[in-house]
Each structure stands twice: as structure tokens, then as C-alpha cells.
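Mods, move this if it's the wrong board.
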Amino acid sequence: MRHDHLITSKQLSRADIEAVLDHAAEIAADPDAVAHRHDGRLLGLLFFEPSTRTKMSFETAMKRLGGDVVDMGSVESSSVKKGETLADTVRVIEGYADALVLRHPRQGAATMAAAFVDVPLVNAGDGAGHHPTQTLLDLYTIRENAGLDDLTIGIMGDLKYGRTVHSLAYALTNFDANQHFISPESLQLPREVVYDLHQQGASVREHDGLEEVLPSLDVLYVTRIQRERFPEEQEYREVAGEYQIDADVLEDARDDLTVMHPLPRVDEIAPEIDETDHAAYFEQAHNGVPVRMALLDVLLGEPTRGDRDE
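Not the wrong board. C-alpha cells:
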């Protein structure tokens, strides 16, 4: 890969993406082959927002590579509560670890933090900005289920505040993909994102309903309406629950439609979908481990000396 830090999916070329996904597939097929690749190395976890899948899969990935993690813990129990700046926090934890993973509620925080450290820094979500490692595991799941070229994908829900959506949309411009965006008008993609996608030659179409486009979709990527991103509670209440997927909705879908969701879900996808062949969101979450193992292996570079000598 061409970068020491991974801040946004805009950094990634098709070759970068395919290299990580191919390596992830190799790891998924034979995880023992990399079980001691990074013995003795440490990954620093700095999560300023709650996380289950991203945090635990990074920790699992590092440990399955032979390394370990050091965790800043909750904001409430850290020096952040004493007024320490993000720049100082990352510079301190850089001294304890070989790479850093940062999640922060402020858009642009990862870009700023990366300017202060020399070890690789991975953006695990910066407000409504970007979430590039989620995108990599999303692409891996799409490739396994539908392929990445000659793809028609519908992305539905909170497109305004959804960082997973923004990252995925940019990454898909590297492939032959028709992108359909389904949302209420108040949650449409930011205009600057639409402009960027068009500038990159992407096929982008916006809809306020799923019905007209559903029969043509290979993949339906559903997202949660993110209550925590709304500046006003009333604004959230006006759109909450507006887009929901159940068996009746999918009656007109193709038999091989793949339904994805970055999780957590609230009520966007009915539990009855879980047992159908459409559901791929738990597989998607599980794919976070081999994909993040592959990414860390690339970013950390050469194996430890002891592993090379075996």
C-alpha cells in the first residue's frame, strides 16, 4: 500500500483494495500461517466513542497475528477528562505501541492526529466522516457474495451522517458499480460527496423510495438512522423508522439479493430476514477479523526477527 496511515477510503486504489482483500482471503483460509507474524508487537486502541465490532475485531486481529493491544479505555477514565488534547494523547500512546487505531466523534480528527505520530494510524471512524476499514470488510463481503464489477448496489438509510456510506461510495468508484442511494430528502448524501463521486466518474442515482430500484439490485446495504449524529432530537424523530426491511418488502427482490448492514441495527431490518439467504450482515461483521488482520499485516510491515528465523 502507498500510505503509512489509513484515514479515508479515498487513499485506496483498486490495486490497494484487491491486495488487502486477497490477503484477507488467504488468512481466512489458513489463519495459522500468520499466527506468529507479529509476535511482541502492540496495537494502541484509542476509542473516544462506543464500539463493539470495530474495537473487538481489531483486538482479535492483532492477537491472532501474535501481537497484543494496549487500550486507552473509556474517555471518563483517561487523561482526556483532565483536558489533555488529542494531539498529546496520540503522541503519548505512540510511545507504547507499534500502530494506533483511533475512533473520534469529530470529523477530521484522524487526519489531525496522524500529523503528530510516526507509527501507522488507522481511522476507525471520525464523526460523520470516514470509516475505511469498515469499507474494506464491506468490499470483501460484497466480493464474496456478488462480485465487485458489473455490480448494482442500493445504499439506504442515513446517507447524510453515515460515515460507512461515504467511505463505501468512494471506494466503489474503483469498480464497475452502479450506485443507487435511497433516503428521505433530509438524509441525502452531502452535496460535496455527490460532486466528488460524479467527478470520479461514478454512476450515482438518488431515490426517496426502494420499490423502483429493488428488483435490479445485487446488494442492498442498509444503514441505521444515527440518533447520536442529529443536532436536534425532533429532527431524528421525523425520520426514525421511515425505512424498514421485512419479508414483504423483499418479495420483489432477486433471489440472490445480498442484504448487508454495518450494524448495530435498531429496527431497519426485521429479525425474520436473519434466517433467509439474503442476510449477510453477521457474515459481514465476522469478516472484520481476517480483513483487519490483513490490513495490520500490511501496515506493520516485515515479520518479527524470531518469526523469520523459524
